[in-house]
């Protein structure tokens, strides 16, 4: 095992913490507040941020979409350049925070911002950013990843750069009170798949990473099973913290990862606008069945330690059934229904995009070529 690890995001967790951002932002900083379609105006979060920033020079940019687009974000990049912004404060879910990361990096680059997503430009510096999280799911508030869509070409691409890691993140579970049920479920599913993508690879014997991943999976399972308690403060706090820990880099250190469910899922979102988490539930069970021989040992371990299953020859198969049943218990489908052009055209469309993006050898074994991807999609669609 060999790795280098740091997660330097200062986290302010708990009720009433939004006002504390003033302790973390220099009084002389010019702040750009980024937000989405207006949920923060309706639930009082905007007011709390405005109050906290009342002694600051600050401006705002709104309208960042779910699955943020480069077309919208480039307007914020231009604003940063003309206004010489010192700090970006992202107030929202994964989309706003990811969008802020793109804006922060693109504002320090003279070329086309999309270059960052296609790997032509690797950001080394960015405007510092902080986050006020309003939707626990992605872990974006304390990781260095960002996923951006180009609406014109229906491309959804990711980049990661240490310079866009948020300096701080406010995680006040009270902001979840206005989340629609569907978004709470999305949060559980997205976080669940994040842990899986760092855990269901080859058995490594990494006791800390495996043990913590299993704790996170059991927590998410409990949150799903106690969904009727979702108006309870502790339930909210547990989901917010679990989703954060699921993708803050810790369980990935020194072990293999396999982000192929995400890579294929992103294409479903780019083509049909499927919610991110739901795209993962559609792909993952079929992908695991397709790749079961590579992942058997870890699936068996998960079956025992997460679902409490007893040993049998088909333990790995039963574990996948349990994962699928977990999604169904949350009313999340494991079949794509959004396509209108018929199954085979839909499968072709995804394969064409995966090939176009060069995703032709996915998984920790590079064993998901377009052939396996097609087998997976034939089941999922
Ligand atoms: O835009 P507003 O009006 O704020 O509404 C949002 C949006 O419509 C709403 N919402 C957020 N907080 C709310 C609220 N509504 C009521 N009350 C609140 N407190 O929820 C809707 C969805 O928000 P969004 O930010 O899109 O959801 P999520 O946090 O699930 O983020 C999804 C995005 O993150 C990317 C996904 O691909 C997708 O683009 N991901 C980012 C990752 C990362 N940075 O590490 C990893 C993930 O795997 C994922 O790919
Ligand atoms: Zn995700």
Count of DSSP helices?
13
SSE run: EEHHEHEHEEEEHHHHHHHHH
Strand arrangement within the widest β-sheet reads 1-8-5-4-2-3
Main beta sheet strand tally, sense and closure: 6 strands, parallel
Bound molecules: 5,6-dihydroxy-NADP, zinc ion
Q: Structural class, from helix and strand content?
A: alpha/beta
Overall mean pLDDT stands at: 97
The count of DSSP E runs of length 2 or more, i.e. the number of strands, is 8
What best-fitting shape do the alpha-carbon axes yield? globular
Strand content: 5-15%
Helical proportion, percent range: 40-55%
* Cα Rg: 20 Å
What low-confidence regions span 5 or more consecutive residues with pLDDT below 50? none
End-to-end separation: 39 Å
Provide an overview of this structure.
- The protein is of the alpha/beta class.
- Helices cover 45% and strands 11% of the residues.
- It has 13 helices and eight strands.
- The protein has helices at 39-42, 45-52, 70-83, 94-106, 181-199, 207-225, 233-246, 260-272, 276-290, 292-305, 315-329, 343-356, 370-380; strands at 10-13, 30-35, 57-61, 87-92, 129-133, 145-150, 155-160, 168-171.
- The strands form two sheets. It has a six-stranded parallel beta sheet with strand order 1-8-5-4-2-3, covered by helices on one side. A two-stranded antiparallel ribbon has the order 6-7.
- The protein is globular, with a radius of gyration of 20 Å.
- The two termini are 39 Å apart.
- 48% of the residues are buried.
- Zinc ion binds at residues 138, 190, 193-194, 262, 276.
């Amino acid at each position: 095992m060999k790795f280098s690890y740091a997660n330097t995001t200062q986290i302010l967790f708990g009720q009433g913490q939004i006002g504390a951002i003033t302790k973390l932002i220099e009084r002389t900083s010019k702040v750009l507040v980024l937000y989405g379609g207006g949920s923060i105006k309706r639930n009082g979060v905007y007011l709390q941020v405005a109050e906290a920033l009342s002694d600051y020079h600050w401006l705002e940019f709104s309208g960042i979409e779910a699955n943020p687009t480069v077309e919208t974000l480039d307007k914020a990049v231009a604003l940063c350049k003309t206004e010489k912004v010192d700090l970006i404060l992202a107030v929202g879910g994964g989309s706003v925070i990811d969008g802020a990361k793109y804006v922060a990096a693109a504002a320090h680059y003279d070329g086309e911002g999309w270059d960052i997503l296609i790997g032509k430009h690797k950001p080394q510096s960015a405007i510092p950013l902080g986050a006020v999280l309003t939707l626990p799911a992605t872990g974006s508030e304390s990781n260095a990843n960002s996923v951006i869509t180009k609406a014109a070409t229906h491309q959804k691409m990711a980049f990661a750069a240490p310079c866009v890691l948020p300096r701080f993140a406010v995680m006040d579970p009270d902001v979840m009170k206005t989340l629609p049920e569907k978004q709470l479920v999305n949060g559980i599913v997205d976080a669940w798949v994040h842990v899986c993508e760092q855990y269901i690879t080859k058995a490594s014997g990494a006791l800390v990473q495996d043990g913590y991943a299993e704790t996170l999976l059991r927590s998410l399972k409990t949150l799903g099973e106690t969904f009727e308690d979702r108006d309870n403060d502790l339930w909210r706090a547990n989901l917010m913290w679990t989703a954060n820990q699921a993708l803050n880099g810790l369980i990935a250190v020194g072990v293999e990862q396999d982000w192929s469910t995400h890579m294929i899922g992103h294409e479903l979102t780019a083509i049909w606008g499927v919610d991110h988490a739901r795209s993962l539930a559609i792909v993952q069970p079929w992908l695991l069945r397709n790749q079961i021989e590579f992942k058997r040992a870890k699936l068996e371990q998960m079956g025992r330690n997460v679902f409490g299953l007893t040993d049998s020859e088909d333990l790995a198969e039963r574990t996948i059934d349990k994962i699928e049943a977990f999604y169904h218990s949350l009313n999340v489908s494991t079949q794509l229904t959004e396509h209108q052009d018929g199954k085979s055209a839909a499968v072709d469309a995804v394969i064409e995009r995966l090939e176009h993006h060069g995703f032709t050898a996915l998984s920790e074994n590079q064993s998901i070529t377009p052939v396996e991807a097609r087998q997976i999609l034939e089941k999922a669609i």
